[in-house]
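Homework help board

Subject: predicted structure for assignment chain

Our instructor gave us this sequence and asked us to write out the predicted structure in token form, then describe one feature. I got the tokens but I'm not sure how to describe them. Can anyone check?
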Amino acid sequence: MKPSEILLSEYNPYYKNYIDLVGNINLMDALVKGSETIQTFFGSLPENKWGYQYAAGKWTPRDVLLHIADTERVFAYRALYFARNSDVELKGFDDKVFAENAEANDKTVEALLQNYVAVRNASLTLFSSFNVNQLKQIGVANGNAMSVRAAGFMICGHEIHHCNIIKERYL
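My token output:
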């Protein structure tokens, strides 16, 4: 299953940029590649950058890494919910509220990376358990349609998006 197979009706247009960032790669390969990239990228950040904010009120790389993991958890939950054919609409989540309450800057880099790896390993297990029909299941989250497969690619593109911002504004 590749991003080129996903219909525009399977997700909110807001996420098109994220999905486009993934390229035309199989979902499981994208999740594995993303994990390797994130671990290498964040593992190579200089110590003096971990607490850096490029502007007042902006997130630090610690905040960003925890935000990536938190968002993945939310999107994986949505994927699970929709794959199980639930017809209940899920509420949205406020990433700013999550970040404000996560206390990422009180955590070690090692703890943040371990958290990310744990989340990604869970996502790999989850998405590998879905069959083709489950991947095509569509539910509603935050008032918008979302397929299971689109949620998977949103996870992958979301982390690419944030790595690009760190490269542009933090390094």
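Reply (TA_rk): Your tokens look well-formed. For the description, you could write something like this. The first helix runs from residue 16 to 22. That's the kind of observation they're looking for.
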